[in-house]
Design a protein that fits this description.
By secondary structure, the protein is α/β, with parallel strands linked by helices. It has two domains: 24-34 and 365-433, Immunoglobulin-like, CATH 2.60.40; 42-359, Glycosidases (TIM Barrel). 29% of the residues lie in helices and 19% in strands. It contains nine helices and 20 strands. It has helices spanning 2-18, 74-77, 87-98, 137-150, 177-195, 219-230, 254-270, 300-316, 346-358; strands at 38-39, 45-47, 64-67, 78-80, 83-84, 103-107, 157-159, 200-202, 206-207, 237-240, 278-283, 319-324, 362-368, 372-378, 381-387, 394-397, 407-409, 415-417, 422-425, 430-433. The chain has a nine-stranded parallel β-sheet, with helices on one face. The protein is elongated, with a radius of gyration of 25 Å.
């Protein structure tokens, strides 16, 4: 019986195969609709590079750098009141400039122990009083004035504090601590603008956790409301759009990052900050740390795709500065360099490639079809950026009269001829060029 059933199944399968329809034709895509062209600012492509404070030049083009985790915090510079050790910060700024950084951001916190209002070495991430505010506002004012005076015309933007919504970086011992942070922001803005009118004032950053409602009870909302009520003029609002790992609420992909951006924009729009640029001053995906959160490490090709999509998504959705965390660090789920050799790996190469494709190019618009198609121009040459939904692969046809392109280029920097005007597109962006 079993043998007879197997024979019958084989005959049925053969007949089905003989009458199976021909494979469906590859569907074409269209160029996106015409739109006003805008030049892509190279400073969009920011990076955390700790070794600039040791004088090590970045191994490629660097659009911007955020000077954090580089040994140059307030508590590391002014260890006693009025006694400054500027050596590492001097080196960091000079090296960033030599590496071509058009945006050099400095974070004004964390508080030295001698100046701290509260000292909690067991709970503050950087120890001692670093997550406290200063017990005297004069200490803060003097510090801001000293930094702005020394680096006038060199540091281009000042961020007030790092991740002020997290107790490990800014502790809530003081009631209504968001109001205190708004006051610190106001004082810093006053002092910096007296000295360096061109320097940008960037809000204290907040981490947007996609599993929690960003309501009127959040630090981010209350802090920005206090900023508004004080009449402080901000040049940018900083968020950290780290998604949760996929093993936790919300997922851990560029899609969830955009969900976090939407949450942040809901708050900024409600409070009247819709015209203030949004900067993502720390971003990565996954987690390698033993910190109570799920561990998630991405393979190099996936990491390259996610990094490139982060900068492309930011361009599409008007996040005007992005600072990837980080070039040398290996604590998050995507590493840009080899931990042993320090040489760039696939995500690091993708950083250079996506920057090379887009920086100073003219950006048009995008349309989401079978794949996303975005238009750009470089030296009057029309090019197209294509990518598929995360985790998918699509073959698309390029109508000859509408796409004057001959090669497809990948994030590893290689290019190859397009055959039969058909392109295979995955989640990693590819560039079509004449």
């Amino acid at each position: 019986m079993i043998r007879r059933a197997l024979v019958a199944l084989a005959v049925t399968t053969a007949l089905a195969a003989s009458v199976a329809p021909a494979q469906a034709a590859v569907k074409p895509v269209e160029p996106p609709p015409k739109a006003k062209w805008s030049k892509v600012d190279p400073s969009l492509f920011g990076m955390h590079v700790a070794t600039v404070s040791a004088g090590r030049k970045f191994p490629g083009r660097l659009g911007g750098v955020r000077l954090w985790d580089a040994g140059v915090r307030w508590d590391q510079v002014e260890k006693q009141r009025g006694e400054f050790d500027w050596e590492r910060l001097d080196t960091a700024v000079s090296t960033a400039q030599a590496s071509g950084a058009g945006e050099i951001m400095y974070i004004l916190g964390s508080t030295p122990e001698w100046a701290a209002n509260f000292v909690r070495p067991d709970t503050y991430y950087y120890g001692a009083g670093t997550a406290s505010d200063a017990k005297k506002l004069a200490y803060w004012r003097e510090w801001v004035r000293a930094v702005a005076t020394r680096y006038e015309g060199r540091i281009t933007s000042y961020q007030i504090w790092n991740e002020a919504n997290l107790a490990s970086f800014y502790a809530p011992e003081r009631p209504k601590h968001w109001k205190r942070m708004a006051l610190l922001t106001d004082i810093a803005a006053q002092e910096i603008r007296k000295i360096d009118r061109n320097a940008k004032i960037v809000s204290a950053s907040s981490t947007v956790i996609q599993g929690k409602k960003f309501s009127t009870e959040s630090f981010f909302y209350r802090y920005l409301r206090s900023i508004r009520n004080r009449g402080v003029k901000l040049d940018a609002i900083s968020v950290h759009l780290y998604p949760w790992t996929t093993k936790g609420p919300g997922g851990g992909t560029p899609t969830e990052r955009l969900a976090g951006l939407e949450m942040a924009r809901t708050v900024t729009n409600k409070l009247g900050f819709s015209q203030v640029p949004v900067w993502d001053t720390e971003v990565n995906y996954g987690n390698r740390r033993d910190n109570g959160h799920a561990t998630e490490v991405f393979k190099p090709k996936v990491g390259a795709a996610y990094l490139a999509r982060t900068y492309v998504d930011s361009l599409r959705y008007d996040v005007t500065k992005v600072f990837w965390y980080s070039w040398e660090s290996h604590v998050m789920g995507i590493s840009t360099t080899d931990e042993m050799t320090g040489e760039p790996v696939a995500p690091g190469e993708a950083f250079f490639t996506i920057q090379n494709w887009l920086a100073r190019a003219k950006w048009g618009t995008c349309s989401d079809q079978r794949v996303t198609v975005c238009s750009l121009k470089r030296k009057k040459e029309r090019q197209y950026l294509l990518y598929a939904r995360l985790g998918t692969t699509r073959k698309v046809k390029l109508p000859k009269k509408k796409f004057d392109v001959r090669e497809v280029c990948s994030l590893d920097g290689s290019c190859e001829r397009i055959k039969k005007r058909t392109v295979r597109v995955k989640q990693a962006p590819v560039l079509l060029v004449p």
